[in-house]
Amino acid sequence: MTAPAARFGDNKHELQRWRQRMALGLLFAGFGFLATRAVYLQAWHNDFLNEEGEKRVQRVVDIPAHRGIITDRRGEPLAVSTPVESLWINPRETNATPGQIESMARLLGKDPAQLTRQINDKTRGFVYLERMVPPPLAADVKALGITGLRSSPEYRRYYPAADVMAHVLGITDINDQGREGIELSYQSWLAGAPGKQRVIRDRPGNVVEVLERVKAPKPGRDLAISINQHIQYLAYRELSDAVVKHQAKAGAVVVLDARTGEILALVNTPSYNPNSRATLDPTRVRNRAVTDLFEPGSTMKPMLVAAALDSGVVKPETRIDTGNGGFLVGDKVIRDVHAKGVVSIAEALQVSSNVAVAKIALDMKSEDYWRLLTQAGIGAPPKSGMPGEASGRLRPYATWRPIEKATLAFGHGMSVSLLQLAHAYTAFANEGVMPPLTTLRRDAGVSGVRVMKPDTAKDVLRMLERVTQDGGTAPHARVAGYQVAGKTGTARKLVNGAYATKYISSFVGLAPVSNPRLVVAVMLDEPGGKDYYGGLVAAPVFSRVMSGALRFMAIPPDASYDKNSAPPGGAPVIPEAV
Asked: Cα torsion for 224, 229, 235, 239, to the nearest 10°?
């Protein structure tokens, strides 16, 4: 009975020994495989290991490019870029404490509850906490030691002249891309191209070493624009004062170099501060001088007279009977504010007679007036380089009915921007030639487009000088020591298809008359005080802006400094209906 039991015990011990040998064999085989694999990788596949390791610690990151500086025509900086940082966090990695979040919220001026929600959102691996943070403030935030908090270098645009230059320069967005004004028009010129560099990051994602620069950043190019900052500031100050004084809804001023077509100043009010993005009001961003259209009213009368002189319908000495100040066209009556009887063409412009220019228009071919307006840029964008340029409205001449033809003579039934209107008047300064507009500084002469005959431009210029003399609609436009010419406009606004008792008051003029150099256009939208005529509201602004601009540019006087050239103190102003 004992022999079988002994055999069973021997078999059991044999099985255990076999299992041990098998386990040891498998273990040694595994070690052998790993050793062979290690030798293979280290000896024959070392590059693969290095590459895989580098992938886990090396990254190629962008290097932001410095945006080009914008300067005025004299080289004074108007828009510069300063280095800033953007703070961001990986919520999946962070272990920020409530105290750290509270301290960060206090430093950044943010709501602690909002920051807590952002940081605790574990579904996201990237959250911006604040963009464009000054480096010292960013350093204070990073000193809190919050895990997963990182920063990226950026640039922020700064505008030294703030609201004075806002509508010319425009603004960049949070990603440093132009969104308005020059910043938008010349985005590709100013922006440059970001570079790339290879870096080593530690496990939290911080850059511990810069290995190489893969691609150097290409900085944006600097840009010199046509604006004279001193004239710009002067125009902004005078316009702002006038808007407040006359309780106007808004206003705009344009100053042009009549010879070169350069825009020396372009201002609007209300304006905005492009350095304060948090308080940016979209209603103030609109560049009214470029985008807003209005009926130009009597400021179009010189263009009508020029077309009539060019076509031979009238001569400078022609006299027109305006009767008792009323003129029937179909079933409509065109009226003057005061009856003047028989007047010369110069007198018609001086007192802004609607009847006189309406009669001249009806004696002309519609095509002749339409052609001159079209050549002067009415109905087409002025191509100045500013974004959002309005084309204005000028209907085809074949559709003009007699009453429309008559009212177009004094600027009703068409629409223009203030920039278009100022540009059109450069023809009177250059013996009938209009230079192309530009927002960039021009260092050489430029050829323009002939709009009217040289003698016509000279004749109209002399007539417009009478507008600023006693007995005209704009004696307050005079500038001491200079001969000044121009035209007022006081046009009713269209509201829901009907003319309301709301006005656009304007004045466009040029100086010095003996050798015209500057054109200044002024517009006030809905002056709400007791004065609303262009000669009382817009002409004084023109006088002060033109006076300062002439002296800034050292343009010599062409008249004596006496009461005949200085703006009158309380001289009566001839009122006008449009």
From this structure: 90
Give me the domains of the chain, ranges plus CATH numbers: 61-84+152-224 (3.90.1310.10), 229-552 (3.40.710.10)
Q: What are 487-499's pLDDT values in tens digits? A: 999 998 888 878 8
485 close to 511: Cβ distance less than 8 angstroms: yes
Phi-psi region of 301 (alpha: psi -120 to 50; beta: other; left: phi over 0): alpha
Angle between helices 301-311 and 366-375 (to 10 degrees): 120
From 374, 373, 376, 366, select the one nearest 313 (Cα to Cα): 366
Closest Cα to residue 354, out of 300, 308, 283, 278?
300
Tell me the pLDDT tens digit for each residue of 508-554: 999 999 999 999 999 999 999 889 999 999 999 999 999 999 999 99
Beta-bridged to residue 196, according to DSSP, are 62, 215
Specify whether 298 is catalytic. yes
**HSE, side-chain direction, 13 A CA sphere, residue 202:** 8
Length of the chain: 578
Nearest-angstrom CA–CA distance, 125 and 145: 19
Q: Are residues 258 and 518 in contact, defined by beta-carbon separation less than 8 angstroms? A: yes
CB atoms under 10 Å from CB of 443, counted, come to 8
Enclosing H/E stretch for 9: helix 2-44
- The answer to whether the Cα torsion of 559, 560, 566, 572 is positive or negative is negative
Smallest Cα–Cα separation from 258: which of 478, 447, 482, 516? Answer: 516
CA gyration radius, the chain: 37
Q: What is the mean pLDDT of residues 32-60?
A: 63
Q: What is the DSSP letter of 431?
A: T
First to last CA, the chain: 138
Catalytic, out of 81, 151, 185, 298: 298
Residue 132 token pair: 């464009």
> Are 448 and 269 within 8 A, CB to CB?
no
CA-based nearest residue to 384, from 477, 265, 282, 466: 265
In the structure encoding, which two tokens stand for residue 50, read together?
A: 């290095």
Measured CA to CA, the distance from residue 459 to residue 475 in angstroms comes to: 20
Are the beta carbons of 426 and 412 closer than 8 angstroms?
no
**Stated pTM of the model:** 0.85
Q: Is 233 helix (H, G, I), strand (E, B) or coil?
A: helix
State the alpha helices, DSSP H only, in 199-228.
none
Helix (H, G, I), strand (E, B) or coil at 530: coil
**What band does 208 get if pLDDT is binned at 50, 70 and 90?**
very low
Candidates 85, 286, 1, 79; CA nearest to 167 is 286
Q: What is the pLDDT of residues 235-287, one digit of tens each?
A: 999 999 999 999 999 999 999 999 999 999 999 999 999 998 776 888 889 99
- 1 falls in which pLDDT band (50, 70, 90)? very low
